[in-house]
Amino acid sequence: MKKNKVLLSVVAVFSLIAIALTGCSKKAEGFVGVILPDAASSARWETADRGFLQAAFDNAGVKVDIQNANGDKAAFATIADQMLSAGAKVLIMVNLDSDSAKAVQDKAAKQGVKTIDYDRLTLNGSASYYVSFDNEAVGKLQGEGIKGCLDAAGKTKASIVYLNGSPTDNNATLFKKGYDSVLRPLIDAGNYTLVDDQSVPDWDNAKGGQIFEQQLAKAKGKLDAVVSANEGLGLAAVAVLKKNKLNGKVCVSGQDATVDGLRAILTGDLSNTVYKAIKAEAEGAATLAIALLKGEDASTATGSVNNGSIDVPSVLLVPVAITKANVKDVIADGFQKKEDVCKGIEDLCTANGI
Questions:
Q1: Confidence band (pLDDT; 50, 70, 90) for 174?
Q2: Beta pairing partners, 251
C-alpha cells in the first residue's frame, strides 16, 4: 500500500505539471537553453532527459536548444555564453559543480536571464527555481534496499563499503546523508563494519571500478554489500565482482532505473535501485521555464530549498525503491521498454511478472 501511495504521488505531481504545460495561453517569447552535464556518468541524460525536455517544449510550442557539456566545465561555460549571445531568455542547467555553475548564473543574471537548477542544486547560486527529487529520500531508499538485501540473506553481521558519487555534486552529498542515516546506527552498533568510504570524482565509472577494486582488496575479498550512489558506479562494482566470481553474492545498490540497471536487478547482480520519474522532472522544468519567459510566477513550485545563500522555490518529486518485485512498475510507467529490459532474459522477466 505504501508503494502504491508513492506511485500515486508521482502521478499526481505529473498530472499537475501536464495541466500547467497545456494551460500556457500567453505566447512565450525567446528561447530556452538547456545544458546537460555529460553522457558518461549515467545514460539518463541522453536517453531520457533530452527527449523528455525536447518533447515538453515542443508540446508547448516553445523553442529550446539542448546541449551537453560532456563533463567539461570549460565547455559548459562556452555553451552558456553561446546561448546568452544567441538570445536565450532562460537557462536550465545540470551543474558539473557549484562554482562553475554559479559563474554562469551570475553572468546570466547581469544580462537579465533567469536560470533554473535542474536535478542538481547550485550551492550559493542565484537560480530562480530548482527542479529535482527529494535526494536525501533517494539515499534512504538505497540504504533501506541494502539492509533489506542483507536481512533476506540472514546477514545480521556484514562488511560493507560506500562508493559515493562526485564530491562536487550536492546530490551525492544528499544521497550519502540518506543512506548513512539508515546504515549508520547498525555500523555504530557493531552489526555492520564499514570497511571503506570513498567518493568517485566526476561520477567517473572507470575510476569507480578502480576505487572499488581497492575497496575489495581492503576487505580481503570478503564483502557483503556495496552502497553505490548510482547504477553507473554499481555496475562498475559488479564488473569487478564478476572477475572475482562474487557477483550475485554481494548486495549492490543503484539509482536511475536504466535498462542495464534493471537487467542487473533481474539477474541478481544489483540488489536494489531507485526509479525517478524523469518525464515529470523534465515537464516540471519546462513549466517553470515557460513561466519565466512569460514573466509569471509558477504555482507548481510549492517547495523551497536553501542553496546556502537564498531559499529557492522548488519542485521536489518522489523517488520509488525498485527491487525484482517491482521492476515491472518502471516498465508499466513507460520509462523503459519491456523488449529492451528483457532481451535475452525473457525467463527472468516472466518469473517477475513482466
A1: very high
A2: 225
Rg (Cα) of the chain, in Å, rounded? 20
Q: How far is CA 66 from CA 36, 37, 62, 284, in A?
A: 7, 11, 13, 16
76 plus 183 within the same structural domain: no
User: Which residues have CB under 8 Å from 84's CB, separation 6+?
Assistant: 33, 91, 107, 108, 111, 113
Q: How long a stretch of residues is the chain?
A: 354
Q: Do 256 and 230 share a structural domain?
A: yes
Q: Does 60 lie in the same domain as 23? A: yes
Q: What is the CATH number of the domain that holds 220?
A: 3.40.50.2300
Q: How far apart are CA 117 and CA 284, in angstroms?
A: 11
- The residue assigned the cell 515557460 is 290
User: Structural domain of residue 60, as residue ranges?
Assistant: 2-133+276-317
Same domain, 343 and 221: yes
Q: What is the pTM of this model?
A: 0.86
Cβ atoms < 10 Å from Cβ of 29: 12
Whether residues 310 and 244 share a domain: the answer is: no
pLDDT in tens, 24-35: 445 557 899 999
Tens of pLDDT, residues 125-143: 999 999 999 999 999 999 9
pLDDT band, residue 97 (cuts 50/70/90) = very high
CB 277 within 8 A of CB 131: no
**Do residues 252 and 270 make contact, with C-beta atoms less than 8 angstroms apart?**
yes
